Amino acid sequence: MDNTTIEFSKTAGKPIRCRGDRRWCAAAVAREAGEPLVIEEVIVAPPKCGEVRVKIICTSLCYSDITFWKLKDPPAYFPRILGHEAVGLVESVGDGVSDFAEGDMVIPIFMPDCAECMDCTSQKSNLCSTFPFRVTPWMHDGTSRFTDLNGETLYHFLFVSSFTEYTVVHVANVTKVETSIPPNRACLLSCGVSTGVGAAWKSANVEAGSTVAIFGLGSIGLAVAEGARLCGVKRIIGIDVNPEKFEVGKAFGVTDFVDSRSSGDKRVSEIINEMTGGGADYCFECVGKASLVEEAFACCRKGWGKTIVLGVDKPGAQLTFKSFDVLHLGKTISGSLFGGLKPKSDIPILIKRYMNKELELDKFVTHEVSFEEINKAFDLLLEGKSLRCVIWMDK
């Protein structure tokens, strides 16, 4: 019996007290909108039926964490344990769990995959019917597994909550992975990189030799470029307000760049249409602005062009299209939640491609910090200095 198994046998079935003094474990709690996270003692309940408790090894910071950390009104809730890109080890399992065991290395993922409902067994969708994706502060059963030492409930985030050394996740939101992949690379597949790569691979199904336009060269947009590169796309046009993104984008396969702030009197869509002789085959909106979705739709090619929406816009944002354009131009537009990937079947494929040196995860990691430096990770992302900052729980 190894040390990890011995450790887990002592805590299985019992509440775990996460201590801020680091002798045991800790949680970083968002107490107020936009305020630094507070590393403090919390209590993590045992897993209920169909759940597992996971000891987080490392977690990475996604801009969605920033977005919800800034919000003051629902779907923002405080106090909350944010974080949703992570990898860890199963510490204990609840009743009815047979596919996971103590010590399994797993990636918790916000996208449910029960692997049994009509949608999960179909190749046409990755939207689970049994456990629908919702932006909720609770577990699937409408309760929390976190409390502070005063007994106050702490809210969950996207069914994961990884900014804590222990979290509880439903098995529909956990994917088992091989231990051969380094944890500081595996955690990237929980959200951002998978979403972008999957959008090109699965949602758009881009063909070799096609032309792609990507609005926004943040980590999601660069992951789209990486996915397009893997699919053999010949021309990848990046659009961003920061011209320095072109040099960054070249490492991910970006071949052309449009600075949207230097386009003069022309709309960006006009420039793309001129560059491509009528529009890109595939356009990806990765920022989360209705106006950019409309621009992307305006510069995808008539007849077969596809616009894929990945960016998370503000609540209540609406899109406006002319009925004529939709009907007569033959274009399509679709959303891409988690890149259209099915976590339990597609994440192992991405891991294999990484281990075979095809998918280049390494270049997404720009910083690595200890858990005590988690607020530094927030600063790096807010200042535009980081693509992905990996946060180690035990460094």
Structural notes for this entry:
The protein is an alpha/beta fold. The protein is built from eleven helices and 19 strands. The strands form four sheets. Strands 5, 6, 7, 10, 11, 18 and 19 form a seven-stranded mixed sheet that branches. Strands 14-13-12-15-16-17 form a six-stranded parallel sheet, sandwiched between helices. Helix 11 links the parallel strand 18 and strand 19. Helix 4 (192-203) crosses helix 5 (219-230). The model has no long low-confidence stretch (mean pLDDT 94).
Keywords, separated by commas or semicolons:
395 residues, alpha/beta, seven-stranded mixed sheet, 11 helices, 19 strands, Alcohol dehydrogenase-like 7, S-(hydroxymethyl)glutathione dehydrogenase [NAD(P)+] activity
Task: Describe how the helices and strands are arranged.
Blueprint: H1 3-11, E1 16-18, E2 27-29, E3 38-40, E4 42-44, E5 51-60, H2 63-70, E6 85-93, E7 105-108, E8 146-148, E9 153-154, E10 166-170, E11 174-176, H3 183-186, H4 192-203, E12 211-215, H5 219-230, E13 235-240, H6 245-250, E14 256-259, H7 268-276, E15 282-285, H8 290-298, E16 306-309, H9 323-329, E17 332-335, H10 343-355, E18 365-370, H11 374-382, E19 388-392
Parallel strand pairs: 12-13, 12-15, 13-14, 15-16, 16-17, 18-19
Antiparallel strand pairs: 1-4, 2-3, 4-8, 5-6, 5-10, 5-19, 6-7, 7-11, 8-9
Helix pairs in contact: 4-5
